[in-house]
Amino acid sequence: MVYQATASAPVNIACIKYWGKRDTKLILPTNDSLSVTLDQDHLRSTTTSRADPSFTKDRLWLNGTEEEIKPNGRTATCIAEMKRLRADLEAEKPNEPKLSQFYVHIASKNNFPTAAGLASSASGFAALVKSLASLYQLPSTPSELSLIARQGSGSACRSLFGGFVAWEMGSSPDGSDSLAVEIAPREHWPEIHALICVVSDDKKGTSSTSGMQRTVETSTLLQHRIKHVVPERMKVISEAIKKRDFNTFAKITMQDSNQFHAVALDTDPPIFYMNDVSRAIISLIVEYNRVSVDAGGPLKAAYTYDAGPNAVIYTLKENVKEIVELVVNYFPQANQFKDPFGLFGSDGVQ
Ligand code: DP6
């Protein structure tokens, strides 16, 4: 008999960025972070896991191509951790089939082109852990599963929840308190939307993993950020989300994106993730907000950039049409996804 289960997980985009590890094997961060999980339908990974006594080794396919599972690598760690949880369950329930002793075959695909330049590791590892949890019929909560997804890729732990999610860095050396928690479900603030502007689909120059390690080793600004900036921002943005205060949410999101890129620049040698188009989009959003603020109104949009040049713009539903028109007007290529600059996902977060 073949045992099989399928699960999906969406991409998440951080408003307070995770950048830096205090333990590279367990993937324990140097600061808390907070993100918004995007709409399931638009950007997600879907993973099917199978267990069968006839399988002769664990195998993995990503978007149809088989990938090597490196011994002691991140995928191997996640699979081993999930098998351990299944073995615990089998010890409690001796009549359950011994799935923990079978090899697994895992196939994962993204519903967005890898060439879109969007990180797929967050949704990928979250979907992998969810599909194994379903295959193994584990009673684990999303926070418990986040402990394992975290060991695949740090940001993956936040994709176990929809809506607004914090990753609490924790303090335990074994990582047992470094997990994701829900700040608010997506239904709490459905008016928030995310626009994703694909500025370039080139593979990024410096990976998040190696870039953040170099920052930990060389940046003094990172130490200031960890100690004196992020803790306060986590409090203020969590409150803003609870109160649906877009003005504060937007202000902190932009400040934190700016500081993350400042920390990248403070790394030796410096890391540049944004390009001229990224900076032009920042100017556009700053100007768009200034017009509103000068008229006595609130901030209407927030830009944020991860470890690459693509912009994510958070805004309220009522402004989506206006912003899309503005972006397309200034960057005419923007509505062609395959071109160097594409725009999609206008009904992102909910
Ligand atoms: C800039 O989660 O990709 O997107 O843990 O080494 O796999 P690893 O790094 P990863 O880093 C994400 C960095 C970021 C900020 C964020 O998502 O919080």
Automatic annotation (TrEMBL):
<protein>
    <recommendedName>
        <fullName>Diphosphomevalonate decarboxylase</fullName>
        <ecNumber>4.1.1.33</ecNumber>
    </recommendedName>
</protein>
<dbReference type="InterPro" id="IPR029765">
    <property type="entry name" value="Mev_diP_decarb"/>
</dbReference>
<keyword id="KW-0756">Sterol biosynthesis</keyword>
<keyword id="KW-1207">Sterol metabolism</keyword>
<keyword id="KW-0444">Lipid biosynthesis</keyword>
<keyword id="KW-0456">Lyase</keyword>
<dbReference type="GO" id="GO:0004163">
    <property type="term" value="F:diphosphomevalonate decarboxylase activity"/>
</dbReference>
<dbReference type="GO" id="GO:0016301">
    <property type="term" value="F:kinase activity"/>
</dbReference>
<keyword id="KW-0067">ATP-binding</keyword>
<dbReference type="Pfam" id="PF22700">
    <property type="entry name" value="MVD-like_N"/>
</dbReference>
<keyword id="KW-0418">Kinase</keyword>
<dbReference type="InterPro" id="IPR020568">
    <property type="entry name" value="Ribosomal_Su5_D2-typ_SF"/>
</dbReference>
<keyword id="KW-0753">Steroid metabolism</keyword>
<dbReference type="GO" id="GO:0005829">
    <property type="term" value="C:cytosol"/>
</dbReference>
<keyword id="KW-0752">Steroid biosynthesis</keyword>
<feature type="domain" description="Mvd1 C-terminal">
    <location>
        <begin position="194"/>
        <end position="350"/>
    </location>
</feature>
<dbReference type="InterPro" id="IPR036554">
    <property type="entry name" value="GHMP_kinase_C_sf"/>
</dbReference>
<keyword id="KW-0808">Transferase</keyword>
<dbReference type="Pfam" id="PF18376">
    <property type="entry name" value="MDD_C"/>
</dbReference>
<dbReference type="InterPro" id="IPR005935">
    <property type="entry name" value="Mev_decarb"/>
</dbReference>
<dbReference type="GO" id="GO:0016126">
    <property type="term" value="P:sterol biosynthetic process"/>
</dbReference>
<dbReference type="InterPro" id="IPR041431">
    <property type="entry name" value="Mvd1_C"/>
</dbReference>
<keyword id="KW-0547">Nucleotide-binding</keyword>
<dbReference type="InterPro" id="IPR053859">
    <property type="entry name" value="MVD-like_N"/>
</dbReference>
<feature type="domain" description="Diphosphomevalonate decarboxylase-like N-terminal">
    <location>
        <begin position="9"/>
        <end position="180"/>
    </location>
</feature>
<dbReference type="GO" id="GO:0005524">
    <property type="term" value="F:ATP binding"/>
</dbReference>
<dbReference type="GO" id="GO:0019287">
    <property type="term" value="P:isopentenyl diphosphate biosynthetic process, mevalonate pathway"/>
</dbReference>
<comment type="pathway">
    <text>Isoprenoid biosynthesis; isopentenyl diphosphate biosynthesis via mevalonate pathway; isopentenyl diphosphate from (R)-mevalonate: step 3/3.</text>
</comment>
<dbReference type="InterPro" id="IPR014721">
    <property type="entry name" value="Ribsml_uS5_D2-typ_fold_subgr"/>
</dbReference>
<comment type="similarity">
    <text>Belongs to the diphosphomevalonate decarboxylase family.</text>
</comment>
<keyword id="KW-0443">Lipid metabolism</keyword>
